[in-house]
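Input/output pair, single chain:
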Amino acid sequence: MRVLRWPAAFLTFVVMSVLAGVLVAIAVTPAVALSGQGISGAAQFFEDLPSYLEVDAPQQVSTIYAKKGGQDIPIASFYAENRTSVKSADMAPTVKQAAIDTEDPRFYQEGGIDVVGTVRGAASTALGHDVQGGSSITQQYVKNVLVQQCEELGSQAKIDDCYSKATDVTPQRKLQEMRYAIAINKKYTKDQILTGYLNIVGLGGRVYGVQAGAQYYFGVDAKALTLAQSATLVAILNNPANLRIDRPDDAQNGSANGYALTKARRDYVLERMYVHKSITRAERDAALTEPVTPKITATSNGCSAAVQYSAAYFCDYVRNDVLNDTAFGATSAERIETLDTKGLRIYTTLDLDLQATAQANLSRYVPATMAAAHVGGSNVTVEPGTGRIVSMVQNTGFNQSDTAPVGQTSVNYSADSEYGQSGGFATGSTFKVFTLAEWLATGHTLSESVTTTEHTFPASEFRNSCKSLAGTKDWSVANAESVPDSMSVLSATTESINTAFAQMGKQLDLCKIAQLAESMGIHTAGGSSDLFQGPSMILGVNNLSPIDLASAYAGFANGGVVCTPVAIDKVTEADGSTITPTPTTCTRGVSAQVAGTVDWALQGVLNAGGTAATANPGDSVPKFAKTGTTDSDVQNWLVTSTTKYTNATWVGNVSGNVGLAHVSFPGGNTGYSAKFSVAKPMLQYLDAHYGGDALPAPDQAMIGGGAPTASAG
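Output:
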């Protein structure tokens, strides 16, 4: 039993009553008429308004867009609260009137607070009871905003503490609420306040505001709500936890009993509207006969909605891009808040037409599941010179559940750990491009001859100016087929001869090869370590992501200037202001002469005798390519580029080390050849829609006298 201390209780009542008197004066009197110094100071106190209480700035749903046929198409939404703010004209008059008649009949006459209710509440508090009633619509708006502020905090402990303070039934909290309500009433019109209130009220779960409520519960816009539907929404806001109508199996308020609790409150709302002469008896009676009939229309939250465009993994990449970019907030919590509450319109680089083609080709030849191995497949396309990611697909279904079935995952194979949770995959011979570039940069030529007969390479035959090779084991190197005892570097590149590149590595500095790769944007996909710099690095033992490998090859197509990948073109906030995401950073990785000569050498990979000849679309668009295969075809790659696009295909083991050389894939392929079947139709599409100009010119001195002239190939 609570023991009352009557002197203190009486004092509280007196203080609150005096304050209520001041409130009456301030709430109903124009500021210019408040001439006394004491009362004008109080007026200033009650007119100060925090920015987050602006009635036109509630949380909003953020939307991601992609291009389809030249049009911006929404592919996914993000929100902490499902809310879409609308103007007063876009709300049915019945829902506005229902709120007034039920929640605050004196709304248009009062000065932001219900003074009678406030004094009654002060007396109740003084007597040791909870604060009773007295909250005007304006006060309810304030309380809703304060609660919303709590929900944007980072930890649950902070949220709970904030919520407790925002809903505390103390005189201090009530006074603050009234102070803010008076300030809002002086700054905004009644229609603006009512609109702000109806845009922020909770309607059960994560549904907030009458527009989201109308869409979620009835599948209509707020403007199209009927009288009965309007009364139902206003009924729900009275007690959203118990009166929401999206739980048909609720024993107390489910569909089996006609949502009896909600209907009773809805009928009360209709009665209040009739009492206040907002509706006629006939309108009331007709609405009373209508059953509560929800048409639940859920709004997808997150990237699952993008599955219909085969763009869920790209969407997740964009989300991670936002959460990693300080342009959207200084801290991780701020960036999450920006994405989930600020109503962003995120216009991305994705080409949905290309995306559909890429997904169809990949899925045709690389199934989501195979009995023989845990197989994955990825295809990604970037633009040289801009870094824009225009397509990104993989063979699995997008599923963020911890218990996702086989063939579904949230891991984005195209990205690294920071942007897609993937640790990457060994790249095989696609990494040889960096050894070739360092070979040319140090004065060697394509026409030089190297031996191919050595198959065991002692670590002592290599040098690394950055890291000690002490303890490095002898390196055993094999070729996929028999080769001559020696051959030119150009031929070794076209045929991807392992022992030839091992010989080239002996004449170079392994550290410099790694540094050149890094200058072209290469880093380990796991992100926790530097590139491995032992001799086997030459043949691609580092785990890289398809997007980074594609970006590096795009740098060679762009004259040696590599651009960091970007997924976002433009971002606007709900109020029309813009956020400028961190743009692509373009830096020179190798000289134009080296880049042009590398491109020229790699053109032969697509020609007869080259390792990617079967992927050649046979058109006139200039392009170059490089294949990559690890031991036993555990991982398989093909990267192809023109000056307008760079496309990377990976097919391999997600986990385990099953050799795919003899594993059957659709289309009569093995794990080795599947990449060519995936890539060829992609290259045909890309050539037709993106094309390519003449590749950067090679340097004749780097070609050397023993090789064909620069005009050949």
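DSSP finds 25 helices and 22 strands in the chain. The chain has a mean pLDDT of 88.
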